[in-house]
Amino acid sequence: MPDCAFPLALLRRSFSFSAGEPPMPAMTRRASLGVFAAGLAAPALAQAPAFPNRPIRIFVPFAAGGTTDILARALGERLAVALGQPVVIDNRGGAGGTVAGEAFARSEPDGHALLVATASLICINKALYQRLAFDPDTDFLPMAMLAQQPNVLVVNPRALPMADLPALIAHIRARPGQVAFGSSGTGSQLHLTGEMFRAAIGAEMTHIPYRGSAPAMTDLVAGNVPMMFDGLGTALPQIRGGAIKALGVASAAPNAALPGVPTIASALPGFLSVNWTGLFALRGTPEPVLARIEAETAKALASPEIAKLFTERAFDPMPIPRAELPGFVAGESQRWRDAVRQSGAKAE
């Protein structure tokens, strides 16, 4: 190899001596070997471009302004400063997040393309869609859990004036099939949470799908649909304003943002529905690049600015080590895909 010609020639000259000549001193031999090693390493170093060497793109499978987008932008601002390159947020909503997933999967696995996504894209869609152009289990690599928010059971207090969750459950059981719940769409996490609730109470309910949680919430406030599950951060302004009432939070413990509101598990043991948001890289990305992204993401999540955002939006941190993330995601995928099969939901 031409790049190694000089060190090899030097090495041959350094170690050749005629009979009667004294051998090369040990220190000189070591110096020659050092030059030789440096010559071999130089081509390899030249082939490893610095990271990052161009703008970083973060794909988001939802429109701008939503919870996932807010988290992605907060992270992107801090990564841009830490990495010295612009970070572009690429919002690609549609088809349950598969539009963003496909675009991300077509990117180069070099760390310049990242994905901020939820269980809908990572866990649910594989069971919901018969055919996907990518496999989140094998194509995507979890890097960090950014935050989590529980889903919350909310009712229109005029349509369902129950004082607490046990009273609501008794009301639904006494009227099988007559009580409806809204959701952000068939096969969405909020729909599946409603189906899990229906199965847990053992009573039929009518599902009314909407195109997103915003129109569902509008109809809930208007009384056109009596109840629904929604993300805590999205529902909180309406709860605090008195337009709707929270009867239960679908987390393992009560949430500080909802004082006095019990967990749904207190009435239905084991009931859990938490919406997490994670950062993903492409499988095949070099480990040094992954380590850099991991380190800078951890610093960003520990910043005062993101801590303030968490308080304002009722986010909870998810400090899961990267080595444990594949197991966590696999468990979540199994749980949500079981829910899809039990509900019989199909992609619209």
Explain what the structure shows.
Helices cover 45% and strands 17% of the residues. It has helices at residues 5-15, 26-46, 67-83, 98-105, 119-128, 136-139, 165-173, 189-201, 213-222, 232-241, 287-301, 304-313, 325-343; strands at residues 56-60, 87-91, 113-118, 140-155, 180-183, 206-209, 227-231, 245-249, 274-282. Strands 1, 2, 3, 4, 5, 6, 7, 8 and 9 form a nine-stranded mixed β-sheet that branches. Helix 3 (67-83) crosses helix 11 (287-301), helix 5 (119-128) packs across helix 13 and helix 8 crosses helix 13.
CATH architecture label name of the largest domain: 3-Layer(aba) Sandwich
The gross shape turns out to be globular
Radius of gyration, in angstroms, nearest whole number: 27 Å
Count of folded domains? 2
Write out the CATH superfamily name of the largest domain: Bordetella uptake gene, domain 1
Our estimate of the beta-strand percent is 15-25%
Summarize the SSE layout with pairings.
Layout: H1 5-15, H2 26-46, E1 56-60, H3 67-83, E2 87-91, H4 98-105, E3 113-118, H5 119-128, H6 136-139, E4 140-155, H7 165-173, E5 180-183, H8 189-201, E6 206-209, H9 213-222, E7 227-231, H10 232-241, E8 245-249, E9 274-282, H11 287-301, H12 304-313, H13 325-343
Parallel strand pairs: 1-2, 1-3, 5-6, 5-7
Antiparallel strand pairs: 3-9, 4-7, 4-8, 4-9
